[in-house]
């Protein structure tokens, strides 16, 4: 994260009518003060890796989604406590560590492997697995914890635990799919070394990333070679990834400019959800359905959207994207030629009122 700030940074209001102290404002007060975040394009979306940038982006606009959480990224705090994992999670991570940490053999060596030996091993493993059911396959991994876990006895090795970072330790809890009382009676966790670390990242959609980069100018996007992409390069790359990127971004930019928090609406059958406040504070009020000029909505899909919105106490908002001049090229400089027309749909329920004479 890069911060550019001049010494003569001052308020844009000449009358100084701010209801709070200038020092307490978090946002830039003029163009000479900027905060530049860094995002990495991974082929599907843009990820932010710094914990400080993750917290700021989500706090100042609810941008993105945590890769290991439902919405808000859970940034680890320095509480000197290791993470807690189920035994099956620990075994799976150690399987990944063994699989991807092995040195890759050259292609010439792989061609000269003994085919008979490989065939015999495959037949032996398949015959052994066919005799087992699901429960046997799960229980056969019981002994793998002792093989893959460098167990540390907590009462006798407290001084040894102090030498490790909390992120290097993991507490393994036994697996249990039942809710019986015997689980906690025989609860014997183990403290082991964590060989696989999966840090949480803030995942930005293509529209969110381009809005932060092009609309606000506070995000620089890097490719796999860690080279900064220009606005035109991001536009071409995102358009190649998502063919409907242009109408999606036009609608996203439109509602963001009106002060709404825009989130994905796939869960409710739409394109976006509009929030007046943070999603953790209030529910969304509108389900946005994007309509391009070249597309047409049939009655069946419209009634489906209305029925979904009615059952979830929301309203359907059709966002029709209109391009003023169809001959203009699809480049970021021509985004001003697009406009959005809002069409609000509602379901009217007739009410029969019986009046007694």
UniProtKB/TrEMBL annotation:
GO terms for molecular function: lipid binding; tRNA-intron lyase activity. The keyword ATP-binding does not apply. Its main location: membrane. It is found in: Membrane. GO terms for cellular component: membrane; tRNA-intron endonuclease complex. Residues 293-357 form the SMP-LTD domain. It holds the Pfam family tRNA_int_endo. One of its GO terms (biological process) is tRNA processing. The keyword Transferase does not apply. Signal peptide: none annotated. Its EC number is 4.6.1.16. PANTHER family: TRNA-SPLICING ENDONUCLEASE SUBUNIT SEN2. Constitutes one of the two catalytic subunit of the tRNA-splicing endonuclease complex, a complex responsible for identification and cleavage of the splice sites in pre-tRNA. It cleaves pre-tRNA at the 5'- and 3'-splice sites to release the intron. The products are an intron and two tRNA half-molecules bearing 2',3'-cyclic phosphate and 5'-OH termini. There are no conserved sequences at the splice sites, but the intron is invariably located at the same site in the gene, placing the splice sites an invariant distance from the constant structural features of the tRNA body. This is tRNA-splicing endonuclease subunit Sen2. It comes from Loxostege sticticalis.
């Amino acid at each position: 994260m890069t911060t550019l700030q001049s010494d003569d940074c001052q308020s844009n209001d000449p009358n100084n009518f701010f209801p709070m102290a200038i020092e307490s404002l978090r946002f830039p007060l003029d163009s000479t003060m900027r905060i530049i975040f860094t995002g990495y394009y991974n082929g599907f979306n843009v990820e932010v890796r710094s914990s400080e940038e993750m917290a700021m982006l989500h706090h100042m606009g609810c941008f993105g989604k945590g890769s290991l959480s439902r919405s808000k990224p859970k940034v680890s705090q320095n509480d000197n406590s290791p993470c807690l994992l189920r035994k099956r999670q620990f075994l799976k991570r150690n399987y990944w560590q063994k699989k991807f940490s092995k040195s890759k053999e050259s292609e010439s060596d792989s061609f000269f492997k003994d085919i008979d030996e490989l065939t015999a091993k495959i037949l032996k493993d398949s015959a052994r697995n066919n005799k087992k059911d699901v429960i046997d396959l799960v229980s056969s991994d019981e002994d793998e914890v002792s093989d893959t876990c460098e167990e540390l006895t907590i009462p006798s090795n407290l001084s040894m635990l102090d030498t490790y970072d909390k992120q290097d330790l993991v507490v393994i809890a036994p697996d249990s799919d039942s809710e019986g009382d015997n689980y906690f009676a025989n609860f014997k966790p183990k403290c082991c070394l964590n060989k696989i670390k999966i840090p949480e990242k803030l995942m930005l959609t293509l529209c969110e990333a381009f809005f932060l980069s092009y609309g606000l100018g506070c995000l620089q996007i890097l490719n796999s070679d860690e080279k900064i992409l220009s606005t035109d390069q991001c536009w071409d790359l995102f358009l190649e990834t998502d063919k409907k990127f242009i109408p999606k971004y036009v609608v996203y930019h439109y509602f963001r400019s009106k002060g709404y928090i825009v989130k994905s609406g796939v869960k409710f059958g739409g394109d976006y959800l509009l929030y007046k406040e943070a999603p953790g504070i209030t529910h969304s009020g509108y389900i946005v359905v994007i309509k391009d000029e070249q597309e047409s909505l049939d009655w069946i899909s419209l009634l489906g959207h209305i029925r979904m919105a009615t059952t979830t106490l929301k309203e359907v908002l059709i966002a029709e994207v209109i391009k003023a001049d169809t001959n203009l090229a699809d480049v970021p400089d021509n985004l001003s030629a697009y406009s959005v027309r809002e069409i609000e749909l509602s379901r009217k329920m007739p009410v029969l009122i019986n009046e007694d004479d």
